[in-house]
Write a structure and sequence with these properties.
- With about 140 residues, the protein is an all-alpha fold.
- It contains four helices and no strands.
- The protein has helices at about 25-35, 40-50, 60-95, 105-130.
- The longest helix has about 35 residues, at about 60-95.
- The protein is elongated.
Length: about 140
Amino acid sequence: MKLNKFPQQPQNPRLSSRLELRLSDSDYNQIKARAEQVNLSMSDFMRRAALRRTMPRPLAAFDLKAYQVLCKIDAQLRIAGNNLNQISKACNSSVALGEPVVVNTGLLESVQQLIRENGNAIKTIVANLAKSTVR
């Protein structure tokens, strides 16, 4: 699951012109570090800086943790979805055969609880990300 949180500026498909720039090692290393912080190539970083375009904000430690939590939630919701598919298949098969539908209510309740908990976790993460967003 890859989320692109930062809208990219439209890319010019023909970047044919070059600009040569001489820098001290110190300046070069600073620019390189800043470009890495915002996950841009040095070329894209320098174009944005020179043209005063917006830069993506650096990825905070909280954002990384939120991403990891969201990946775990995604895995849990996939499991819940598989359980629901199995339940619905069993119900549909019973109906097709004219048999009474037997549902494991404990499993349904656990799936429902899992969805509720993950929904609350997602809301909390989104609220915290909104608070930490730098514009």
